[in-house]
Amino acid sequence: MAKVILNEVRKHFGNVKALDGINLTIEEGLFVVLLGPSGCGKTTLMRCISGLEKLTDGKILFDDADVSNTAPKDRNVAMVFQSYAVWPHMKVRDNIAYPLKLKKVPKKEIEERVKWVAELLHISELLDRFPSQLSGGQRQRVAVARAIVHRPKVLLMDEPLSNLDALLRVRMRSELRKLHDQVKVTTVYVTHDQTEAMTMGDKIAVMNAGRIIQYGTPEEIYRRPKTIFVAGFVGSPQMNFLPMKVTSSGNQFFAENFGLRIPLRTDPRKDRLTVGIRPEHIFLEQPGNSVSIGATVYFAEKLMSETVLHLMIDGDTTIVVKVPYDLSVEENDKMQVYVDLNRIHFFDPATGERIEL
Amino acid sequence: MKRESMVPLLLILPALVYLVVFIGYPIVGTFQLAFSSPKGWLENFKYVLSSRDFLSAFLNTILLGVVVIPAQFVLAILLALLVNKKWKGYKTILYIIATPLALSDVTAALISYSIFAPNGYLNKILLRLNWIERPLYFFGYLFRSREFLVVILTEIWRATPLVFVILLAGLQSINNEYLEAADVFGFSAWEKFTKITLPLLKPSIVSALLVRTLFAFQIFGVVWLLAGRDITILAGETYYWYVFMNNRNIASTYALIIAILTFIVGWFYIGTIRSKHLEEGVRT
Amino acid sequence: MKKFFYILACVAICLWFLGPLFFTFLASMTPSSDFYSMDKIFPSKLTFEHIYKLLVNLGGWRAMLVSVQVALIAIAISFAFGIPAGYAITRYIFRGKNMIKLVMLFTRSVPLVVIAVSLVTMYLRLNLADTMFGVALAHAAMVLPFVVLITSSIFSGVFVEYEEAGMIFGLSRFGAFLRITMPLALPGLAASAIFAFIMSWNEVFAASVLAITNRTLPAHILSTAMASPDYFKFAAGTIMAVPALIFIFIIRKYLISMWGISLK
User: Fold this and answer.
1) Domain B54-103+154-283 adopts which CATH fold?
2) Given CB atoms, is A354 within the 8 Å cutoff of chain C?
3) Residue of B nearest to A57 (CA)
4) Cβ within 8 Å, pair C170-A83
């Protein structure tokens, strides 16, 4: 187990800045998720931590030791690859034991540890098979077993669930998380799936264009997204973003547009604001502190557990609202919805930064 | 960063140096030999180009190509279509068709000789069937046109599988959905072949054509063994001038002419398929 | 009807492709008296006399040994130089990579006919003329571009992740190549070695020009066959064909892809 410190980490491929100055401290024993769209640099960052990629600039420290120029084999990290990379020419047992053998662990101990990890991951009966005789889910367990058996300082996982079918993916989410709680190894987990990030991570680092935009607990990311990008990337359906003008009457400032008039606590010192409202924070009945907006039903997605309404609030502006499944609506119905003012987000339209108002 | 980028070059360097020494340098040497003569640097070419042997060697080489290549293509396409149907046992037939690939031109010539020799099996069988009264002769200067025929048959036998293999690989890479779509739209079998299969097969056809034409200029073993210099050919003249006349300069001149012809043909084809050619060479 | 057509086609294919081979084998084992009597298609008995004489009395055995040695040395050289290059082309991104590939494609299509005579001049200076080693060096040059291209294709078939996993779990880059990539690439490499063997075994022009006394089997046959009685020619055809056929049979699974790469 180790604390991982990334200091101004840069990685350039030719002219492409895959990592553009990453600063991050991952506390010991934490499960950290790198979340972002494809091409944001999350996998590159993980490969830099593993040592498979050399840094263009910056430093990586495990605890207090600078490992920036250490070969992957000497970093004592482990990795679960997206394709699992379970060596096809070795039996499951040898796949798991090989890292230990390379580390010159005594034979007896190797046997014990393989036994331990096989039981932990429920693959004891697969030990004498070749990887070609395993299903995708079984192969993944072997990959995880191989990664944790030699007690690495840092465990890296590169979208390990993306090649599994939907049902298995959900099950493995909780299993991997529980496994982490048992072995308590510092874990860096790469994914583009926000559900995985929210359900598994102690902390999430949301990345975009080679930078970390926000680093925090899932709750912080959800409740106080730092930028429009984070707000839009986390949450499903996506947050509604409405461009609004700032008006004032006396000392009171408002954000106004689409017949909405949202009172602001302080002077935003801007003419325009982007207002973000999550679909689950718009209601059919008036909650405590709210404003109402008139809308026409454009389309209703009936998901059975709930209904997602697309409402026209203007000639070409729609908002998305999550409502209970038993609501009966028809297209073109007129309705009134209420926006919860306590759970509204404000962003600077020019920079995309969050503004606390 | 800099060290990292040196590694692949260091790995490639030995191979590159080897090729420069054993292929690049000898090519330069061929030029030197071909262009050096006591009478003047172009004398070898003047001598070769004005000789009757060259003219007939050139024409024979071209003629062999013109007859053999189209025949090979028709046969190879038919075979490839047949095998590509993937009926039971098609693999066995595939390997049977591929057998000549293992054999050299010398071997192919000897095999062909067992059929067409005066005491060969063709004569024996025809005599047994009473279709002829005395053996047919296929070899010797007097029977040059028959010799030519035997060479052609041997070349078709030997090298059709080469074309076949390339075309089959091409056929197998055609997504079956294109043909199923054609079925849905009611194409006939002939329309499917001419409107879908053939156009999609074009890259394979062009590369097979390239390979075959390049090899056509190098044809040697079969002709040399079966016909000697009864049928002169370019590579045969190179061999003759080196081994029998002990004249490296004239031999190199012939070699250079082969190289130039190969180069022209290669350039012509690669011009038409360049991008494809590069992409398929190595996957990354 | 359709089935009948298929069967007919198959029979025709078998006759056309295997018939001549069969007759050559038959002729090489037919006693000479039977061979020269026109009304005997099938011999009264089979004999290995011609093959034995060709091998023992006419220098066939020696030539065969030369052939094998030449091929093995050519394989050793071309693989020693070709494997690193093929690996680099697959696993690294670097400037000039396309150029390198182009060089490989170009050198592969340079006919040995073109360089053989000039190689003699070079060999005379290096004391390699008329040596088995000289022929092997030339064959290595012929096979090397093919080895580079095919090994790079074989290595690209072994996922990078296997190798990277090796590096993560305690191997150096070279160690990962040796312990992970090589074992996985081995069947393909073995098949390409056999393929290279056949290429060298069958090459006749350079072998004839570069060596007079140390001739490989095809070169030996080329220079002596025309002067020999017919049944020796067939014996020669047989001993040339059989090893090649056996080898091709061993690597039959790889045949199509190899020819694809060697010809493209």
Assistant:
1) MetI-like fold (1.10.3720)
2) no
3) B1
4) no
User: C259 at the B interface (CB within 8 A)?
Assistant: yes
Write the CA distances from B244 to B92, B221, B257, C237, integer angstroms: 44, 16, 19, 24
Is A139 in the C-facing interface, judged by CB distances under 8 Å?
no
Cβ-based contacts of A56 with chain B (< 8 Å): 1
* Dist. CA B21–CA B17, nearest whole Å: 6
- C234-251 confidence digits (pLDDT tens): 899 999 899 888 888 888
Could you read off the pLDDT of A34-60 as tens digits, one per residue?
A: 999 988 999 999 999 999 988 888 999
pLDDT band at B278 (very low <50, low <70, confident <90, very high): very low
Omega prior to A160 cis, within 30 of 0:
no
If 0-12 CB within 10 Å is exposed, 13-18 middle and 19+ buried, where does residue A258 land? middle
The model's pLDDT over C96-129, given as tens digits with 9 standing for 90+, comes to 888 888 888 778 777 788 888 889 889 989 988 8
Q: Residues of B at the A interface (Cβ-Cβ below 8 Å)? A: 1, 4
In whole angstroms, give the CA distance from residue B148 to residue B152: 6
pLDDT tens digit string along B221-248? 889 888 888 889 999 999 899 888 888 8
| Nearest CB to C113 within list B82, B123, B238 | B238
**Contact call for C171 and A52, based on CB within 8 A:** no
This complex has an ipTM of 0.88
Averaged pLDDT of chain B: 84
Mean pLDDT for the stretch of residues B145-151: 91
- By CA distance, what is C187's nearest residue in A? A89
Nearest to C17 among B8, B97, B125 (CB): B97
Question: Rounded to an integer, what is the distance from CA A104 to the centroid of its chain?
Answer: 37
pLDDT at position A268 is 81
Whether chain C has a CB inside 8 Å of the CB on B157: the answer is yes
Domain ranges (residues) in chain A: 4-233, 240-355
CA angle A158, A163, A169 (to 5 degrees): 90
pLDDT above 70: residue B275: no
Q: Which residues of A touch B (CB under 8 A)?
A: 54, 56
CATH superfamily of A4-233: P-loop containing nucleotide triphosphate hydrolases (3.40.50.300)
Q: Which bin fits A338, alpha (ψ -120 to 50), beta or left (φ > 0)?
A: beta
Q: Give the mutation candidate from A50, A81, A91 for the C interface (greatest C CB count, under 10 A).
A: A81
> Domains in chain C, please, with CATH?
59-228+241-258 (1.10.3720.10)
Percentage of chain B beyond pLDDT 70 is: 93
Domain A240-355 class, CATH top level: mainly beta
B1 neighbourhood in chain A, CB within 8 Å: 54, 56
Find the residue in C nearest to A53 (Cα).
C164
Three-class SS string for A76-89? Answer: CEEEEECCECCCCC
DSSP structure class, residue B135: P
Predicted TM-score (pTM) of the model is: 0.82
Domains A4-233 and A240-355 share a fold: no
Mutate to test the interface with A, among C169, C172, C177, C184 (most CBs of A within 10 A): C169
